[in-house]
């Protein structure tokens, strides 16, 4: 736990320093664009830092198993890469909230809602919602660009071209995967009407893998490992661990999106139901209920004005169908698969122990 606390502090310090360096560029444009900097700091303050932690322990897993000692340049590089992942994550959250029309993030107004509120408070011309959406897209783009800058700074400081190239390739692949996965998510919220039940389930699983599992856990692990000079076998082991764990992580997130306590998650209970998320949970539910229940379920899912009673009705259908129990069983199965990948792994024992602890934290949580 002490290692994780120190890592979180180091990442926050690196992010703060990076934003301080970029603040002169932003403020040189004019005082009226400092809102971009203020909201960047807000989005990059706090959070669970799971991606940073997996990047760090991916590095430790390989660095601790080799004969050559760790250098300060290497440590600086992995902290920079972990921080770049947090910047990328912040960009993804801003854009995701725009796509989903989410009002809140971590218990506060989402970025586009915050920009819209500024517009309304100042009584500016035009539509507040349109201004908020446009501004949030630009904020997300800025954070995305900054994540690249921070990663490049970190890998340049590593002083090892082969390791830097490997880490950059993994980061680029992750970025493509999550963008394609986000498109799949948007696609399925609209194209589901022409899919049969098996196609819906397969599509939902693809969204889990590419929108979340790879970029949340597998890629951060491998990026950290690449900085340490990982072999192909070590990268494969971390993939065999990270991908099933990433699936379990997202399936837990899907359950929280439907049944989570708003006071803990920072988002209204049943928010994914109002957004019409076509998750594995939804696909399993639809495949198990009667045609009459399925028609009502489809009519309600995705209605932003769902009442509390209607949310409870959808939640009840999910529970009664057995879909919730099946999701819990899948999570348990994926966690077992992830842990099994670490058995006999050619990785540092202290990192394996830390990864097992992280496994429990990311899959047995309430937010």
TrEMBL record:
Its cofactor is Mg(2+). InterPro entries: Isoprenoid_synthase_dom_sf (IPR008949), Polyprenyl_synt (IPR000092), Polyprenyl_synt_CS (IPR033749). GO terms for molecular function: metal ion binding; prenyltransferase activity. It comes from the Bacteria. Keywords: Magnesium, Metal-binding, Transferase. GO terms for biological process: isoprenoid biosynthetic process. Pfam families: polyprenyl_synt. Belongs to the FPP/GGPP synthase family. This is Polyprenyl synthetase family protein.
């Amino acid at each position: 736990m002490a290692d994780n606390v120190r890592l979180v502090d180091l990442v926050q310090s690196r992010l703060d320093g990076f934003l301080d360096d970029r603040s002169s560029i932003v403020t040189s444009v004019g005082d009226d664009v400092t809102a971009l900097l203020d909201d960047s700091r807000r989005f990059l303050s706090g959070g669970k830092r799971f991606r940073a932690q997996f990047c760090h322990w991916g590095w430790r897993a390989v660095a601790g198993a080799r004969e050559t000692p760790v250098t300060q340049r290497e440590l600086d590089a992995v902290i920079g890469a972990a921080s770049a992942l947090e910047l990328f994550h912040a960009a993804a959250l801003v854009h995701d909230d725009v796509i989903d029309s989410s009002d809140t993030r971590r218990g506060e107004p989402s970025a586009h809602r915050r920009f819209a509120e500024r517009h309304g408070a100042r009584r500016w011309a035009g539509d507040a919602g349109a201004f908020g959406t446009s501004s949030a897209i630009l904020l997300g783009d800025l954070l995305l660009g900054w994540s690249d800058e921070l990663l490049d700074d970190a890998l340049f400081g590593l002083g090892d071209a082969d390791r830097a190239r490997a880490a950059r390739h993994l980061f680029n692949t992750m970025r493509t995967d999550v963008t394609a996965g986000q498109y799949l998510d948007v696609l399925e919220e609209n194209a589901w009407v022409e899919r049969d039940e098996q196609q819906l389930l397969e599509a939902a699983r693809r969204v889990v893998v590419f929108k979340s599992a790879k970029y949340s856990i597998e890629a951060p692990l491998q990026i950290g490992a690449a900085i340490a000079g990982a072999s192909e076998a070590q990268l494969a082991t971390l993939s065999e661990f990270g991908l099933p764990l990433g699936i379990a992580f997202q399936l837990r997130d899907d359950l929280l999106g439907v049944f989570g306590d708003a006071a803990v998650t920072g988002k209204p209970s049943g928010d994914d139901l109002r957004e019409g998320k076509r998750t594995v949970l939804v696909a399993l539910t639809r495949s198990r209920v009667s045609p009459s229940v399925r028609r009502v379920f489809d009519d309600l899912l995705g209605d932003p004005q769902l009442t509390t009673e209607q949310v409870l009705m959808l939640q009840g259908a999910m529970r009664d169908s057995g879909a919730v129990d099946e999701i819990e069983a899948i999570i348990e199965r994926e966690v077992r698969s992830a842990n099994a990948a670490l058995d006999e792994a050619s990785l540092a024992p202290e990192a394996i122990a830390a990864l097992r602890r992280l496994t429990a934290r990311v899959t047995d949580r309430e937010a």
